[in-house]
Write a structure and sequence with these properties.
247 residues; alpha+beta; Ubiquitin-like (UB roll); Fumarate Reductase Iron-sulfur Protein, Chain B, domain 2; 2 domains; 5-stranded mixed β-sheet; 13% strand; binds iron/sulfur cluster; binds FE2/S2 (inorganic) cluster
Length: 247
């Protein structure tokens, strides 16, 4: 392992301002991740050629690949800075903000569009009035296992960032949102509201916009079977369309 880590970081002072690049060098430490490099830079922000600069802005919280806050593009791949060890990647480490979300500053992006879409598609199970009644329907162990896989999503946005169908050219909500709908629709108590969720998808940005490029599956840090969720949603949409047609 070399004694120092070289980093090339894409920076941006404010939303909509022109980005620029700065290079840094920090001393290597054992098991150093990209967040530790950013912390080192923040201690005394100087570029590789000795010029004083401002600390790089980034977000993080859990530091164990659970919250998704530290998601950024590292060496061309969208991933979490807390779980990316510099010893495992090429140098200089090239770091950019996520590409499908507006930049707030440096590596901090605004991912609120993802959460707005979760609201739009009713990605929850209404609980009002359910506590007083009898216990809800049971999960079979098979269904629980299947739903556990889907439930591991941390809404990091990697799947949206890597998807060619997500962007200003389309209103496609993205794999994470479709996966959440399937997670709720497959819950024995969530089925009651399944039609509402599917209805929201039948407008613009629904499952039909997925081009099946599979980039989402390749970048998902939780290995969620996203294309399987999308295929299930597509089947549910087809059934709903026929039901609506003949009702
Ligand atoms: S399969 Fe492709 S088009 Fe569909 S959500 Fe995944 S990356 Fe996007
Ligand atoms: S599905 Fe995977 S990549 Fe997409 S937001 Fe969830 S955890 Fe991140
Ligand atoms: S800080 Fe939570 S995923 Fe990296």
């Amino acid at each position: 392992m070399p004694e120092s880590v070289r980093l090339k970081i894409k920076r941006q002072n404010r939303p909509l301002q022109a980005p620029y690049w700065e290079e840094f060098e920090v001393p290597t430490k054992p098991a150093m991740n990209v967040i530790s490099c950013l912390v080192e830079i923040a201690r005394e922000p100087r570029t590789f050629d000795g010029r004083k600069t401002t600390p790089v802005a980034w977000e993080s919280s859990c530091l164990e690949e659970v919250c998704g806050a530290c998601t950024m593009v590292i060496n061309g791949r969208v991933r979490q800075a807390c779980s990316t060890l510099v010893q495992n990647i090429a140098q200089p480490v090239v770091i950019e903000p996520m590409q499908k979300f507006p930049v707030v500053r440096d590596l901090v992006v605004d991912r609120s569009s993802m959460f707005r879409n979760l609201r739009r598609v009713h990605a929850w199970i209404p609980a009002e009035g359910r506590f007083e009644g009898p216990a809800g329907p049971e999960h079979s162990p098979e269904l629980a296992r299947e739903r556990y896989e889907m439930s591991r999503c941390m809404m990091c946005g990697c799947c949206l960032d890597a998807c060619p169908q997500v962007g200003p050219h389309s209103e496609f909500a993205g794999a994470a949102i479709l996966n959440q709908i399937e997670l709720m629709n497959s819950h024995p108590s969530g089925k009651d509201d399944a039609d509402n969720r599917l209805e929201a998808l039948m407008t613009k940005g629904g499952a039909a916009d997925c081009g099946n490029a599979q980039n989402c599956v390749r970048v998902c840090p939780k290995n969620i079977p996203l294309t399987a969720s999308i295929a299930k949603i597509n089947r549910e949409l087809t059934v709903k369309m026929f039901k609506d047609l003949f009702s």
